[in-house]
Amino acid sequence: MSNGNIYQSQRYYGLALDPIHVGTGGYRLGRVDLSILREPGDNLPKIPGSSISGTSRAYTAMRTNKYRRQQTIGQTQNNTPIIRTVSCAGKGGDFGEEHCCERDCPVCIPYGFSNGRTRQSLQGMAQFFDARLLFFPVHSMVGPVWITAPGALRQAGMADPPELASDQARPAAGLRPAANSPLAQLNLGWLLLQCGDELDTEAIATELPDLPHQDSAIKEILGRLVLISDELFSKVVNDNLEVRTSVAIDPATGAADDKALFTFEALPRAALLFFDVVYNNPGHFQVAGVPLTQDIAWVRQQVERGLALTGHLGLGGMNSRGLGRMKVLNLEEKNHGN
Ligand SMILES: [Zn+2]
Predict the structure, then answer these.
(1) 73-77, 127-131, 175-179: which has the highest mean pLDDT?
(2) What's the sign of the alpha-carbon dihedral 317, 318, 322, 323?
């Protein structure tokens, strides 16, 4: 979606390659110590846009050599250069003073900066929105299946998603436990549901904006997709989150802390999420009174160079415990490599 030369909205699909934990800041909820963030309205787990943006910013900085470097900011009276360390990743120090704020910076222009020292600031040319769940993996008597719901499909952009009764499941062709049997049932974890009409996954594949339905992972998911009601979707998702137990290590001794066992929840591997990034046209913005000269395609390219690394280096918490890789499936091809 776009509006002339003002902005371009791009839909991305992210596949969890590991369990992903984006926490709420660590308050205890029921059985887990560290819960993940949820959408208040439907209680479905989500990844906030700010987490995606912060991670992607760091990775764009890595790939463009802006992660940490020396910058000459002038010279002393006896011509000795004054050098400072700048890092365009992260928050840029306490007052944003470590961001370079240069008008050609592939990090500061797409992701924005606010430098308290020079009083220069620029909103990010890329605005990131929350990643929401679309397809969620659950085990069943016919092997792993992915569940979705009319509400999730509607949020993802399907104008007229298929409907069903609240106690039904509508599986993709070939998933019905007994073909042609009106009494066929399918379990999703502990929940046993009556099978309704076969689900037309072709319509879903073609009506979701930018879904890369030729991607092998998407093909597999669509072939094993089961539609359930919105009420059940939230329940089944929340009952099938990954809950892990881990132990905090005392950095001084390298040994496990006493009473440091904790549990945390995570989105399971193979969950599929979608999120939007809106790219603004830099031509409508200025730095220090001078209009920027880049275009929307340039902003998108810098951001996608960062997003490509979330499939390798991960996002969210617990990265050192083997969590967090999310592969963005529909990046422009040229942005994948180095
Ligand atoms: Zn910069």
Answers:
(1) 127-131
(2) negative
| CA pair distance 292, 109, nearest whole angstrom | 9
Give the DSSP letter string of 274-336.
Answer: EEEEEEE-GGG-EETTEE----HHHHHHHHHHHHTTHHHH--SB-GGGT---EEETT--GGGS
Query: What pLDDT digit, counting tens, does each position of 107-124 carry?
Result: 999 999 998 888 889 999
What is the Å distance from ligand 1's center to 92 Cα? Answer: 9
Q: Is the pLDDT of residue 27 over 80?
A: no
Domain ranges of the chain: 25-46+129-244
Interval between CA 50 and ligand 1 midpoint (Å): 18
pTM exceeds cut of 0.85:
yes
* Ligand 1 center to 4 CA (angstroms): 28
